[in-house]
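Look at a sample.

——
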Amino acid sequence: MIHILSIRKGKALYFLLAAILYNIFSCADNIVHAGQKEVEEQLKAVFLYSLSHFVTWPETVDNLYHSFDIGVISSNTFKKTLQQAVERETRHNKPFKIRELGTTKTVHPEDYKIVFIGSAQIPQWLKIREIFRQQPTLTVSDNRDFTKNGGMVTLLYKKERITIEINYKNIQESGLVISAKLLRLAKIVGQ
């Protein structure tokens, strides 16, 4: 059975575009002087933040904590970029909190709503992916094989654009519900 969150026509897409444009233009001076890698990281950070508005977590998980925690295994520059993107932002009146993801022994998937694994850290993901299987934690990476390796969402940067790939089966198994608006924008795999 497919569960798709119904959202008024255009509202979700408008919100995503508004969030992206706001974050890009609020950092306009930095982007003008930034290289391609910095622009790529800024776009990924904004998309990662925006994903939180297109996913619904089970109510028991959503009400469990006082902050919206994103676990990160990536470069320090990406962590800083993501921190800037979510600074002073909230989801359901909960502030975003960026946290370093621990090792296999210290990782508790219930502590995170979203986990981002940088492409260079995929070997670490392969060690911890079973911990996140069928857990209500959205797993995201910029590695092109991520959705084939147990991940849920891949953000690919190509020709100054971000494309989204979603493993729908992995999301369904986790108990998360993803917006139909986001599904229309993404390449769907694992159905």
Residues 1-9, 24-33 have pLDDT under 50 and may be disordered. DSSP finds eight helices and eleven strands in the chain. The two ends are 11 Å apart (CA to CA).
